[in-house]
Amino acid sequence: MGSERMEMRKRQMSTTQETPGAAQAQHSAGNRGSNACCFCWCCCCSCSCLTVRNQDEERARRTSHELQAEGIPNCEESPAPTLEEVNAWAQSFDKLMLTPAGRNAFREFLRTEFSEENMLFWMACEELKQESNKSVIEEKARLIYEDYISILSPKEVSLDSRVREVINRNMLEPSQHTFDDAQLQIYTLMHRDSYPRFMNSAIYKDLLRSLSEKSIEA
Fold first, then answer.
1. Strand ranges (DSSP E) for 85-145?
2. Which stretches of the chain are assigned E, i.e. beta strand?
């Protein structure tokens, strides 16, 4: 009888010692389960909802980056200009800006004067006018604003306060024509300020001389 009681007491003591460990293991498992919950606040959470959210944010950043990268090429694709075309550039600024070759040559000149952003802005506005998708228009308008209108941008173009106010109102509901006033002002600036110097530049004169010599040889 005494030995049986001793045996029962040993079993009870053994069960009592095992219970905290089991409870701790169960609590630990519960914690792991809570970490998988989308309401988890801890920084080590690896739940699927956060993964999806991070993927969405990364996709949005990638879309923005791709739009920005596709926005303005380093150089417009165009055939080599003919002598007639280059001579026509001297007739008017409009004729210079009408062809990709003319814009490329003028843009090369603007780069030497550290004012290439004027051409880039004008080209970005032209591209915006070709868009019809509302979400793409809004995204491209935002990029144009950040790149050329914001006072924080190193590529900010020179605009007066009236035009800036118009742009700020237009940005509430961006459209293909959000920057029309600004584009006209920059076009006028390039026409009056940069175009005359371009016509007297080595870039234009060398191109004209090279084409003239080829024409004589032919």
1. none
2. none
Whole-number CA gyration radius for the chain: 34
- Tokens 């040993």 — which residue? 10
Nearest Cα residue to 203 out of 79, 99, 81, 121: 81
**CA 66 to chain CA centroid, nearest Å:** 7
Model confidence, pTM:
0.66
pLDDT digits (tens, 9 = 90+) for 46-89: 444 444 445 544 544 444 444 443 444 566 887 899 999 999 99
Cα–Cα distance for residue pair 84/100, rounded to 1 Å:
15
- CA 31, CA 144: separation in Å to the nearest integer? 48
- Tokens representing 147? 């790149």
- Residue 28 pLDDT class (50, 70, 90 cuts): very low
CA–CA dist 59, 32 (Å, integer): 29
Q: What average pLDDT does range 171-198 have in this prediction?
A: 98
Report the alpha-carbon distance of residue 20 to residue 208 in Å, rounded: 92
Under 8 Å between Cβ of 181 and 167: yes
